Amino acid sequence: MKCPYCNNQMEIGRIQSPHEVAWLKGLKRPLLNRSFLHRGSVVLSKKSMMRGSAVKAFCCGMCQKVIIDYSDRSADLNC
Ligand SMILES: [Zn+2]
Fold first, then answer.
1. How many domains, the chain?
2. Could you report how far apart the first and last alpha carbons of the chain are, in Å?
3. Three-state DSSP class for 36?
4. For residues 1 and 8, is the Cβ–Cβ distance under 8 A?
5. How far is the CA of 23 from the centre of ligand 1 (A)?
6. How many Å lie between the centroid of ligand 1 and the Cα of residue 4?
7. How far, in Å, is the centroid of ligand 1 from the Cα of 68?
8. Would 24 be classed as within a structural domain?
């Protein structure tokens, strides 16, 4: 994947966590960060009891950006 900022070739990798990985609206951090409690949240990787969660991500070292394409059905590495 080419970086949309600098057109450099991006390196494929993953973002992983022992918890669900989700994008949540706003910057307030409630005690419970469970995505189903937040309207408009985007679950990037569902949690697996055995493996936690992991989502495919592309990194550009030149501009220090990480991009996750959640329209890609294969991005959630737990599916
Ligand atoms: Zn870049």
1. 1
2. 21
3. helix
4. no
5. 22
6. 7
7. 14
8. yes
